[in-house]
């Protein structure tokens, strides 16, 4: 049996998506480990059901479950897709929230289409990632992004970078096409900002204590525009998701 290839973006039909670190090119593959246990023990997948399996980097195969048991799911591959990245990349620079609000911000941003997430150690962050805590924090955010990608059936898991300082964030923003800073005192609403059809748009979200004046000056010095979402002041863990939804309405959800 030959496997058909298709470069179209696969339509969502309710089939679950499982992610493997590497996607073999064989006509049959095994979804094992934690993914396989989740498929068999939690989702109760059985032979005959249709599933998707991806590598999180744009390659997705579709096929029929031919066996489900202690080793996981064995899937006969029928179609292979190569899903290109979006023409307009969406980046979220997220100041470190308290506790579990960090993974929540990542989860919401992933479901709403973010392509890259930058953890930011802003001046007024209550949470501080030092030494080993930084590595653990980033790993937790990456795990949240992967889980949310499966839930929302995204073929590409967003990148979560290492934590950055304000100086590093400013350096990264200098290379994007449009940089927006959410600020409750900004004059211009995000809805009126001119957006490109290709390139990179970044949204900067400050911490619970707000942006320090020096941070606003530094961000503006590299071309970032202060914007507001509306009259309400949102939590840092939800403001990024709201901004991404507003951007997606204008650039992707049509």
TrEMBL record:
SUPFAM superfamilies: alpha/beta knot, PUA domain-like. It is an enzyme of class 2 (transferase). It comes from the Bacteria. Residues 87-247 form the Ribosomal RNA small subunit methyltransferase E methyltransferase domain. Its EC number is 2.1.1.193. The keyword S-adenosyl-L-methionine applies. CDD domains: RsmE-like. Its main location: cytoplasm. Residues 31-77 form the Ribosomal RNA small subunit methyltransferase E PUA-like domain. GO terms for cellular component: cytoplasm. GO terms for biological process: rRNA base methylation. It catalyses: uridine(1498) in 16S rRNA + S-adenosyl-L-methionine = N(3)-methyluridine(1498) in 16S rRNA + S-adenosyl-L-homocysteine + H(+). The keyword Methyltransferase applies. It holds the Pfam family PUA_4. Keywords: Cytoplasm, Methyltransferase, rRNA processing, S-adenosyl-L-methionine, Transferase. Transmembrane segments: none annotated. GO terms for molecular function: rRNA (uridine-N3-)-methyltransferase activity. It is found in: Cytoplasm. Belongs to the RNA methyltransferase RsmE family. Specifically methylates the N3 position of the uracil ring of uridine 1498 (m3U1498) in 16S rRNA. Acts on the fully assembled 30S ribosomal subunit. This is Ribosomal RNA small subunit methyltransferase E.
């Amino acid at each position: 049996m030959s496997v058909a290839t298709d470069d179209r973006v696969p339509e969502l039909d309710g089939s679950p998506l499982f992610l493997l670190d590497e996607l073999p090119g064989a006509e049959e593959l095994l979804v094992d480990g934690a993914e396989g246990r989740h498929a068999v023990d939690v989702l109760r997948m059985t032979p005959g059901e249709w599933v998707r399996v991806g590598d999180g980097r744009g390659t997705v195969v579709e096929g029929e479950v031919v066996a489900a048991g202690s080793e996981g799911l064995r899937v006969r591959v029928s179609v292979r897709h190569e899903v290109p990245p979006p023409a307009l990349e969406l980046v979220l620079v997220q100041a470190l929230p308290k506790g579990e609000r960090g993974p929540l911000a990542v989860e919401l941003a992933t479901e709403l289409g973010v392509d890259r997430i930058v953890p930011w150690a802003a001046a007024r962050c209550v949470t501080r990632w030092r030494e080993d805590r930084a590595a653990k924090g980033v790993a937790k955010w990456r795990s949240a992004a992967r889980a949310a990608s499966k839930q929302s059936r995204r073929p590409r898991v967003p990148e979560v970078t290492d934590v950055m300082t304000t100086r590093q964030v400013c350096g990264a923003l200098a290379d994007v096409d449009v940089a927006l800073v959410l600020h409750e005192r900004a004059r211009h609403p995000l809805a009126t900002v001119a957006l490109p059809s290709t390139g990179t748009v970044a949204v900067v979200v400050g911490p619970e204590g707000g942006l320090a004046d020096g941070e606003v000056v530094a961000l503006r010095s590299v071309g970032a525009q202060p914007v507001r979402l509306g009259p309400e002041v949102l939590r840092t863990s939800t403001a990024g998701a709201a901004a991404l939804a507003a951007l997606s309405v204008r650039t992707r959800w049509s």
